[in-house]
Amino acid sequence: MRKEMKKVLSLVLVGTILTGCAGSGGSKTAGGTDGDKAPAAVEKTEANEEGTEKPYDGVTITMMMNQGTYATTFSGVFLEICEEIEEKTGITMDIQPVTDFMDVIQVKLATNEIPDIFVHNLPQNVKLFNAQENCVVMNDQPWFERMTSPDTVLYEDGNLYGMPIQSATWFPAIYYNKDILKQAGYDEPHPTTMKELYEICEAIKTKCPDVTPLYMMDNDTTRTQLYMTMGLGVALNDQKEIYDKLQTGELKFSDVPECKQVMEDFKKFYDLGYVNPDHMSTRVDDGVLNIAGGTAAMMIADEWVLQDVMNQNPDANMGSFVIPFNDKDMAVMGNFVVAMYVNKNGANKDACLAWINEFTQPEYMDRFNIETGTLATFKDCKTAELHPAVAHIYEDYVQKGNAALEFNAYLDDQKALLDSYLFFLYADVISGQCSVDEMWKRWDDKFAEFQKQNGVLGF
What we know:
Oligomer: single chain
Strand order of the largest sheet: 1-3-2-4-11-5
Protein name: Carbohydrate ABC transporter substrate-binding protein
Strand content: 5-15%
Keywords: Cell membrane, Lipoprotein, Membrane, Palmitate, Signal
Pfam families: SBP_bac_8
Largest sheet: 6 strands, mixed
Organism: Hungatella hathewayi
CATH topology of the largest domain: D-Maltodextrin-Binding Protein, domain 2
Structural class: alpha/beta
């Protein structure tokens, strides 16, 4: 019988979290060379099929990720694959989904209690994670030459600091239940102004009184901030010089009219009662269940959350449209893919690289890609057939060049501050704890303090 996969579903206290790290007392380590190269994929032999002579028998490696990422991508088929790789290699995967991932990983990096593997955006967060010091460079891994587009994920120094699990990602939009929208009087809606979008919400509220027009999951601020990073990206798309002025102190965020307008437009969904009343206590899983179950009509999400909806209810009739921020018909894209970073100073480094190399093989990646709706990282692996709702955003907007880079991408140097402060300010506004003007003033003060501490001229 297969061993049960070890899972930590909620880690609340940092002290508790630290016990699951690489190098801790309960972690088994693997022998290996001092180099970073992974061995070739482990071949099936009569010996290891019988459960003997597994190359890393008894080794447990830790993999940490955001709770939302676990729910949308690393549960389900991924857990099955982990068990199969364990049978072949002897490596047990200890998956650790955590809330407030960015806070937790910063503590671990600072205290050198880094998990064997941690999952987040690449190359966006290379600097934030100090990956040049903490993580394995993967340019020489056996699977590197099989990648479809390695140049898009290399850091500015030309190195790859993680194994991308996809070649492209993040097609955010409003994903909606077509049947509910039709009941509200809208067949294939395509709002081109914010006024039209509010009218759709009002129609749902009036004609489908038992349905939430727009389901929000604000207990997770990474969900709350989606609207803002998308909206500001579109609103400032033709004024990119503003970002340089913000970075040098020549301009304050509160001086930018679009910052106030996008936040006011966002707040309006809450003020008009279009959002679920319990939004401050709900998370991604709740949104998936409500959309899949037909008790909510629309959600601001990406393709991974949509895939989770379809896994929950394969018969869900889903569509999509872009949010017409500032009355513009434009999509949004990011500068990242999700990847597995490996702790280069951990005792289990060689086992991690061997595990990742095994995971990249078509027998596993084909299933992972198809069942999670992922565009393939490797040329010899099957890629997901995009759901029509995702294909609409990707093919009709992104591939045609009608997509703005998200706001957060221009603030990569302040990524830690976004996660720990700005996202929570957004939540303060929508929960009525502060005004839009007060929010941007607080952010200006915090941003200036951060820039000054880092020696940026102009602050």
